[in-house]
Amino acid sequence: MSKKPKFKPGDTVKLKSGGPDMTVLKLLDSMVTCVWFNKGDVKERGFELALVEKVKRVQFSNRF
């Protein structure tokens, strides 16, 4: 039985230690490659899966 991946490309994550929101680009074994903006520059780097967590998004309703 295969384990469901924790993240998928397009998910928004951040380092558990803090930092900017990042977008998951790809997954490979125990690594996740993320992209993010830093002062207008696009950055890309791989991280161990254990170092990142999914960003919890709040859903707003436009109904009053």
Beta-strand content bin: over 45%
Which spans of ≥5 residues are poorly predicted at pLDDT below 50? none
Structural class by sheet pairing and helices: mainly beta
Number of helices: 0
**Rg, alpha carbons:** 14 Å
How many strands, which pairing sense, and closed or not: the largest β-sheet? 5 strands, antiparallel
Strand order, largest beta sheet: 4-3-2-1-5
**Order of secondary-structure elements:** EEEEE
What order do the helices and strands come in, and which of them pair?
Layout: E1 12-15, E2 22-28, E3 31-38, E4 41-48, E5 52-54
Antiparallel strand pairs: 1-2, 1-5, 2-3, 3-4
Plain-language structure description:
By secondary structure, the protein is an all-beta fold. The chain has a domain of 43 residues. The chain has a 5-stranded antiparallel β-sheet, with no helix packed on it. A hairpin with a 6-residue loop joins strand 1 and strand 2.
Structure, briefly:
The protein has 64 residues and is mainly β. The chain contains no helices and 5 strands. The chain has a 5-stranded antiparallel β-sheet, with no helix packed on it.
Structure keywords:
five-stranded antiparallel β-sheet; globular; 5 strands; 64 residues; single chain; mainly beta
